[in-house]
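Entry
Fold in token form

___
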Amino acid sequence: MKAICMPVWNRPNELSETLQCLNIQRGLREWTLFIQIDPSSKLSEILIQIEKSELSCKINIECNAKILGVRGNTFHCLQRAAQHGAKLFFYLEDDLELSGDALEFIELAMAMPNFSQNFVAGNLHFSGCSNHAHLAIPKQVNPIWPHLAIKSKFLSSYGLFFSIEQFEQFISPHWWTHPLKVRDLRGNRGAGWDYSLTEALLEKQKFCLQSLLPRVRHNGPIGVHCTPLEYEQGWNNAELWPGVETLSTIQEVKVNDSLLGELTSFVTMASQCWSLQYRWLLQDRNLSKIAQGLRKQVL
């Protein structure tokens, strides 16, 4: 089974737009949508929007008895999909819009040889947590760009996808890590499950496979995961690849690959963000070891 996992809270209008984006996905009929709803005063509106969507895929809905929050609600949704036999997972927040070929990109990526061994997950956007490295697509698009996937040390919640093996071996074990050492690009301590996964990726020197062209973006500044300021600084500059043509192949590239062409400088600059995050993480880890040594000597 291929599962789209969507935690939902109190944003029926944003949810409606996301469901509309799902409706244009080629191959949607082959997926099952798992919706996990945290209780709110807008529950009835949310259920109406789901019913009105008339999606071609199967829909599995569960309403929580109490609020589980961003971490708990999402994890419970993923677990429930796994218990129903899901082998492929696509995590979709309820305030995102998608390219028409988003599901095609996911399936092609996950069909790559040794995908689960070479990567911890994949993303539909070349970005990481709070880095604001969002691409404004050039007017002249190189025909090869839609087919390129970047081997990246970024990982984010935006269009995250993974296999059951990746869920069991990486996603689940590192979901609840606390306290976190990883920082955002303003030097602030990270928080949330996406930062937990990012920290584990950096510490273990693993990689995420990400779409070069943005196949996902926030559909507005209002929401619990993106403040108006964050939207203005980052997502307001993001463009969405339409994905009108059927995607039949993807090719993995690395930073500075010649296939990137005029986007090389953008990707290189973005890669400096993960290098900065890694240096901060190493510094914090070394300081922790020194502190532990001092405590042993004193005690």
About this structure: The longest strand covers residues 2-8.
